[in-house]
Amino acid sequence: MRLLFLGDVVGRVGRQVVLQHLPRLREAWALDFVVVNGENAAGGFGITEAIHEEFLEAGADAVTLGNHSFDQREALVFIERAPRLIRPANYPPGTPGRGAALIEARNGAQVLVVNMMGRVFMDPLDDPFAAIDRELDAAPLGMVADAVIVDFHAETTSEKQAFGHWCDGRASLVIGTHTHVPTSDHRILPGGTAFMTDVGMCGSYEGVIGMDKEEPLRRFTRRIGASRFEPATGEGTLSGLAVETDGTGHAVRVAPVRLGGVLEDVVPAFW
Amino acid sequence: MRLLFLGDVVGRVGRQVVLQHLPRLREAWALDFVVVNGENAAGGFGITEAIHEEFLEAGADAVTLGNHSFDQREALVFIERAPRLIRPANYPPGTPGRGAALIEARNGAQVLVVNMMGRVFMDPLDDPFAAIDRELDAAPLGMVADAVIVDFHAETTSEKQAFGHWCDGRASLVIGTHTHVPTSDHRILPGGTAFMTDVGMCGSYEGVIGMDKEEPLRRFTRRIGASRFEPATGEGTLSGLAVETDGTGHAVRVAPVRLGGVLEDVVPAFW
Amino acid sequence: MRLLFLGDVVGRVGRQVVLQHLPRLREAWALDFVVVNGENAAGGFGITEAIHEEFLEAGADAVTLGNHSFDQREALVFIERAPRLIRPANYPPGTPGRGAALIEARNGAQVLVVNMMGRVFMDPLDDPFAAIDRELDAAPLGMVADAVIVDFHAETTSEKQAFGHWCDGRASLVIGTHTHVPTSDHRILPGGTAFMTDVGMCGSYEGVIGMDKEEPLRRFTRRIGASRFEPATGEGTLSGLAVETDGTGHAVRVAPVRLGGVLEDVVPAFW
Amino acid sequence: MRLLFLGDVVGRVGRQVVLQHLPRLREAWALDFVVVNGENAAGGFGITEAIHEEFLEAGADAVTLGNHSFDQREALVFIERAPRLIRPANYPPGTPGRGAALIEARNGAQVLVVNMMGRVFMDPLDDPFAAIDRELDAAPLGMVADAVIVDFHAETTSEKQAFGHWCDGRASLVIGTHTHVPTSDHRILPGGTAFMTDVGMCGSYEGVIGMDKEEPLRRFTRRIGASRFEPATGEGTLSGLAVETDGTGHAVRVAPVRLGGVLEDVVPAFW
Ligand SMILES: [Fe+2]
Ligand SMILES: [Fe+2]
Ligand SMILES: [Fe+2]
Ligand SMILES: [Fe+2]
Ligand SMILES: [Fe+2]
Ligand SMILES: [Fe+2]
Ligand SMILES: [Fe+2]
Ligand SMILES: [Fe+2]
C-alpha cells in the first residue's frame, strides 16, 4: 500500500497548501491511504467541522489531533459523528470521540489509525506505552489490519524514539507530530516499522513553529504577552512522509515530502 | 569562509565517527573553521580533557557544550586552560570557563563562537536573549568578527526558532543542539543568518537519542530505572551543517552533512 | 516595628475579608507597616487600579504581586504611577513598574519592600538569588532600611527555604507566597530573619486554592476544561504573618494570623 | 478510632524522633492505627528493610512511600514480603509491592491504607483520580473498611486540595505528603473526610526540606552541584496529624502534632 502522512496543518496557510497539493498527489502517486494531523487547522488552535470535511474532500482518509484537539469547543460535539477524526487514545475514559479506528481504504484494505500523546513536558494523560499495546492487540497488523499508522504527538525526541522502538514490527508507521519541524531521521526500524521523529507541519516556516514571530519573540524577551498568537503569513510548505508497505503491512520504502515555501522541495524518488 | 558545525558527539561511537571523517573533510572541503558540540562525548555525559584535545587534533577549532558541560567534574578545572572550549554563556557569573570566545581561524579570520542555553523545559539560567545581545555587541559581525557561530542548546523548537530570528543578521549561523535529531529546516533567514532548528548528533541512531534503548524503554514503561544509561552501539553517523559565508560574514550557502549509519548520506553539493 | 504581611488576596471574598479586618487590626495592634499580596485580587487574576487603592485606603503601605501581576492589562499602565505597588524584581529590564521600593512608614521609618519570583516550576525569570543581593545591597538593613520585607513568590518549598537562608540576617522578613496555603513553619532564622514557607491566601478555603472547586476537578479528571476558573464562594479567611522587629531591624517575634472561614482562628499572643 | 499519621521521615534525625516519640504516644493517646511515610528514611532517599521493621516495632501499623520508594534498590525485593509497606498505587501494573492494603488494627478494625502520587510537576504515573475510585470501591468505608487513610504524595496545593474534595465522604483522612512542610489547613471537609494539604516531615527543619542547606544553596546559586544531598543535622521535629473517627469511619476531630526542633510544639487538645 501507498501511505501518506501530512503533519500538523497550521491555520489558513497550512490548509491552503493541503488543498492545493493533496488532490493532485493522491492521483499522481496512486495513494491508498492519507492521514492529516489537523490539531492546529483552525487559526492555529483546534479544528472545526467545516475544516475536517474539507480535509476529507481533499483526499484525507483520516484526521488525527493532539494537545489542541478541543481548542475549538465544537469539536467536543461533532467528533462523535466524525468516524474518521481521531483524538489521542490516552485521554481519560469518557472523552468524546475515539483514539483509534479501523478505516477502510478505497482499495478495500483495513487501516488502523491511532493517535497517542506523549507525557514528557506534556499534559499527564494515561500511559501511552500501555495504551498502544491495547490498541495494537485489538487489531493486529497482518491479521486484522492491513496497515497500522500511529501518530505519536509528543514533545521530546527521546519519548518519540522509544515509542517507535516499542511499536517496531507491530505498526506500518510510527510518526511523531507536535514540534512542527520535520526531522531528517526517517527510516525503517529493524522490525519493519517506518519511523520519523517528527513529520513537521503544513504551514509557513517563516515564523515560529507556524505562528507569526512577533508575539513569541515578545514573550520570550519580555515575559509578558501583548496579544494572541496568530498564524504566520508567507508561502506555505506541505510537510509529510510517504511510506510503501508490503503484503505483511510492514514498510519497505520511506521518503519525506516537502513542497513549497522556504524549505527545500523533496519528493519520493520511488513513486 | 567555509564553516562546519558538528552536533552533540555521543560516546565512543560518536567520537570515532568524528575522528574518522573530520580530518579528511577539513582537507577535502578546504574548511576554514570547525565547531564540535562535545557535551556528550565522555560516555554520553560531559567531556574530559583528553577527549577535548582529541577533537582539536582532529580538526576542530572550537568545542561547545550544553546542559552536560560539567558532568565530568574535571571539566570544571581544565576548562580554565582550554581557550577553545565554550560552555553556555548564560550560566551564573563565576562559572568556570567562558561562554564566548573570539578565535582565530587558520586563515587569520576572527570567529566569534558563542554557546547559549534555552530555558523552556531546561535549567533556569539567565535570559539567553539578553545574554546574546551582550555577546554580539561585544564583537559585532563584520566589524570585530569575520564570522559568528551561535550554538543554541535548547529543548523546544519554538525557543530555538525565536532565537534564530532574534539573532538574524547579527550572526553567520545560529544552530540548535540538544535534541540529538537533525531537522530538515536548514535555511538562510532574511537577514543573512544560516539557521537549523537542530543539527542532530554524532553517534549511533539505532538507540534512543544516542543511548542504548533498553534502559530508556524500561523507564518509560515501568517508571523505575534498573541501570545507568549507556551509549548505543551500532554504526555511527556524523551529523552536521555546512555553511559558506561572504565577505560580510553572512551566509550564502547552507547544506546538511550526514555520513554513515542508519540515516541517508548527504553532503553539500556546492563544495 | 510591628509588621503585618497578608497573603495572596483572591477575588471578592478575599478583598472583603481584608477590608473587614485590616483597618481594625492596624489600629488595635498599632501596626507600623502592612504589606498585602494582591496578585489574585481581581477575580482571581491580577489587580486593577481601583482595587490597589482600596488596599491602600484599608491600611496597606505596600502591595506586592507575582506571576499574575499583569493579568489585568491596565496594571501595565497604572503601576507606573503607583509607587507602593511592587511587581517581581526579576522580570526583564524594561518591565513596567518596580521590583523594590523604599517606602516611608507612618512612624517615619524606611521600609524596603521587595517582590521576587522563584523559578522552579515557574516562568524562567532572572536569577532571584543574584537579584536579591543587588536589592539588599542597595538599601542595607540597619543602614538605609529600618526594616526589609521580602515577598518570595515561588512554587516549591525547597526554593523558598533556600531563599530564606540566603537572605538570613539581611532582611526582617522573607515570606513565601503563591501556593495559597499557610504553612506552620513560621520562625526566626539564626541570623534574625523571620521566615514562613508560605503565608497562605486571603479568600475562601472551601474551594481549590481559593477558586471554586468544580472547574479544577473537571480539569484534573477529564483533562479538558469547560469554563473559566472562578473564585470560590463561602466565608473568607484572612491569612497573614505578624512580625515584631528590634532596633536593628531583625525579627524578635513572629506569629501567624488567621481569622474567619474554615481554618482555626489564631492571632499573635504578644500584641 | 484514633489515628495518627506521621509525615516523610528524613534520614537519621527523622528516624530518631519517630523512635523517641511514637511508642510513648501510641500508649498515652491509646492510638488505634498509625501510618508513617518512610520514603526519605534511608539517608533521605528511600527505605531499607531494617528501617521498615524499626518503624513497625516503634508502633507503626503501615508505612507509605512516594517518588523515592525505590531509591534503595533492596525495596524492590523486600516490599514483596512486607504487607504493611505501601507504595503509590498508580505505578504501572507489575510494579513490585502494593498500592493499597486492608490492614487489621490492634482492636480488630479493618483499615484501608492507600498511597497515591500526584502528577503535576511529578512523574507521569496513571491517573490518581481514577485509581483512587477503584481502591475506594474495592473496600468502601463503613462497609468493608472501618477507616480509610489516603496518603496523597504530590507537589502542588491545587492537585492535593482537588484530591481531598474528590475523596470527601469516602475516606477518613486524605493527607498530603512530599513538600516536607506542614500546612495549617487541617480540617474536616463537608463529607466527613479529614484533610491537610501537607503533613510536613519528621526531621530537622534547620536545613532545606530536611537536607543540609549547603548543597541546595550551591545548586540554586551556581546551577552546578558539588556533592550529594545529605540530611540536615540539628534537633528533629516530629510532624503529624491526629484524627478521631466515629462509628461510620468519618472524622470528628482533627489536630496537628509537632514535637521538638525549631517549630512550635503542638498536640491535640482532645486526647
Ligand atoms: Fe501539539
Ligand atoms: Fe501542532
Ligand atoms: Fe546532547
Ligand atoms: Fe543537552
Ligand atoms: Fe496567588
Ligand atoms: Fe502566584
Ligand atoms: Fe516525595
Ligand atoms: Fe518526601
UniProtKB/TrEMBL annotation, chains A, B, C, D:
Organism: Ancylobacter novellus (strain ATCC 8093 / DSM 506 / JCM 20403 / CCM 1077 / IAM 12100 / NBRC 12443 / NCIMB 10456) (Starkeya novella)
Top-level taxon of the source organism: Bacteria
Pfam families hit by this protein: YmdB
Binding residue positions for Fe cation 2: 39, 67, 153, 178
Name of protein: Metallophosphoesterase
Positions of Fe cation 1 binding: 8, 39-40, 180
NCBIfam families: TIGR00282 family metallophosphoesterase
Keywords of the record: Hydrolase, Iron, Metal-binding
InterPro entries documented for this protein: Metallo-depent_PP-like (IPR029052), YmdB-like (IPR005235)
